Amino acid sequence: MAGAHVTKVGIVGIGFIGSDHLHRLTKTIANVEVTAVCDIVPNKAQKVLDEQGLKAKDYSDYHDLINDPNVEVVVCTASNEAHYEIVMAALKAGKFTFCEKPLALDAQQCMDIINEEKKLGRRMLQVGFMRHYAPEYVQMKQMIDDGVIGNPLMVDERHYNQTQPEEYDTSRSIIETAIHEIDLDHWLVNDDYASIRVFAPKQTRHAQNAQIKDPQIVMMETKTGINIVIEVFVRCQYGYDIKCDVIGEEGVLELPTVPQVATRLNAQYSTAILTDWKARFESAYDIEFRDFIGHVSQEESPVGPSAWDGYIAAVTADAALKSLDEDGEKQDLDFPEAPAFYAAK
Known about the structure:
Layout: E1 7-12, H1 16-27, E2 32-38, H2 44-51, E3 57-59, H3 62-67, E4 73-76, H4 80-92, E5 96-100, H5 107-119, E6 125-128, H6 135-145, E7 152-160, H7 170-189, E8 193-199, E9 216-222, E10 227-233, E11 241-248, E12 252-254, E13 263-265, E14 268-270, H8 277-296, H9 307-325, E15 331-332, H10 340-343
Parallel strand pairs: 1-2, 1-4, 2-3, 4-5, 5-6, 7-10
Antiparallel strand pairs: 7-11, 8-9, 8-15, 9-10, 11-12, 13-14
């Protein structure tokens, strides 16, 4: 019997998440070969290949990677500013593409990507909103859809992080951090957003020397009136802390805290708190890529978060940044119907 098809992948951008996906695709996901890598920083990609004991072509220009006939699938983990041009080039080359979030820096760029994908006649792109694959969120989504707590009325969320780099600015708190919840909540409650407002409460002293407003409060309302509140705090000092409570007519769904071994020591009973996002969602990343590769390896369209999901998130994020600039002024949102092209996900 013939062996399974080995999917040949090229990765553009070998930073923290890129090197993590490189390891995942070569050590965790079956029937994948990373045949090419590319990073704008000279020798950076080769150094990571050497550290992981891997061999692949190391390109200095992402166009060469995309046009390499030995690359069937393009994974974009470059800087946010480069996502648009890399994704457009990969789609123009007719190659399946995985792009880490955000899909692009603004809504118009996302719409350009959507139109380019439509030219191909089928879905070729998946966006890396990995929480769609986290088992606890999948269970929560199913319980909402099954009406376990009746109609959702409110969502109360927290996204705290202590590991962001010093250059992490105000806009990145929205387009890199809060965008997870912006995407997730639309999927969880299956309702479009009607408005958003963002404001900065009392600021942490740990952000005094940074170009950032931290923390931030994001408040959204959906078309049916569900109220969503997200606390975003990227200079949190105690750990990486994710909370999601969905309050319904009949009860509450509460996202579980990641279980840790409890310690009884020195007259104290305690459990650890995670300190980074990688440990918190590692299994979700694995499941995400197994699903993506499983489809594209069979020449099937990916079924995870789409370019349309990327567009919804980008429109909302654009309005969030405008609201923050205007001291929390409410921004109305209005979305067209999802194109039939993306309806059957």
